[in-house]
């Protein structure tokens, strides 16, 4: 029989796990990891066919996508992918998304193959956090590539952003990584809350929906 067990600590852990996964996913998909120095397109076509100077803008470069403004386009900045390899950050995010999906079902299922679902998820979150830290540490090592120097100037080098500044996506990924480790530690508290004596008493009384503070 399925017992739906809801406690403040288990619900908080579930919500934090979902926030961490979505935060990392949004950061990963964003192009705002590196913000290039201000520049002006060479020319844009005016309404009468003549060319006029374009407005200054700052191109952005992400993990696998970039946003630039092309002189012959009138619709604004063009964004699209440029890379096909995602590395450690993608691996960590996939694990977080899996945990976020599983966490929704922790109210009904408390074990997986006789192992606590909270402990299993906490372990996966710890592993995901390690992958994310590795990815964030290796990410600046690629700043010396031709692609980054095109956006950040010739002074760009490994672990030196040159004329670029860090975008909001990088800081979001860092915050999501910290939150991932918080969730990994907090999963133990969620396990304690759902296996307490009070919960067992409610189960023995035949209740299917158990809500505790």
TrEMBL record:
Any one annotated GO CC term: membrane
Q: Which domain of life is it from?
A: Eukaryota
What membrane topology does this protein have? Answer: Multi-pass membrane protein
Q: Which Pfam families match?
A: L_HMGIC_fpl
Q: Main localisation, per the record?
A: membrane
The UniProt keywords, alphabetically, are: Membrane, Transmembrane, Transmembrane helix
Q: Which InterPro entries match?
A: LHFPL
According to the record, the segments passing through the membrane are 12-31, 82-105, 117-139, 168-188
Q: Where in the cell is it found?
A: Membrane
Fetch the PANTHER family from UniProt. Answer: LHFPL TETRASPAN SUBFAMILY MEMBER 2 PROTEIN (PTHR12489:SF19), LIPOMA HMGIC FUSION PARTNER-LIKE PROTEIN (PTHR12489)
Record-given protein name: LHFPL tetraspan subfamily member 2a
Q: Which organism is it from?
A: Neogobius melanostomus
């Amino acid at each position: 029989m399925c017992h739906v067990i809801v406690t403040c600590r288990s619900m908080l852990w579930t919500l934090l796990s979902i926030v961490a996964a979505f935060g990392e996913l949004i950061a990963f998909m964003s192009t705002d990891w590196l913000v290039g120095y201000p520049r002006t397109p060479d020319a844009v076509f005016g309404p009468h066919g003549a060319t006029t100077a374009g407005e200054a803008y700052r191109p952005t470069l992400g993990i696998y996508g970039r946003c630039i403004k092309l002189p012959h386009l009138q619709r604004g900045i063009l964004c699209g992918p440029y890379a096909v390899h995602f590395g450690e950050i993608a691996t960590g995010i996939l694990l977080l998304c899996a945990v976020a999906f599983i966490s929704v079902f922790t109210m009904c299922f408390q074990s997986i193959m006789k192992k606590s679902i909270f402990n299993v998820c906490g372990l996966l979150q710890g592993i995901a956090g390690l992958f994310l830290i590795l990815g964030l540490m290796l990410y600046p090592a690629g700043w010396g590539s031709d692609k980054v120097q095109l956006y950040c100037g010739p002074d760009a080098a490994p672990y030196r952003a040159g004329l670029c500044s860090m975008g909001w996506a990088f800081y979001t990924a860092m915050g999501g990584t910290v939150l991932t480790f918080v969730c990994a530690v907090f999963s133990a508290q969620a396990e304690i809350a759902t296996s307490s004596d009070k919960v067992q008493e409610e189960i023995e009384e035949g209740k299917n929906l158990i809500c505790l503070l």
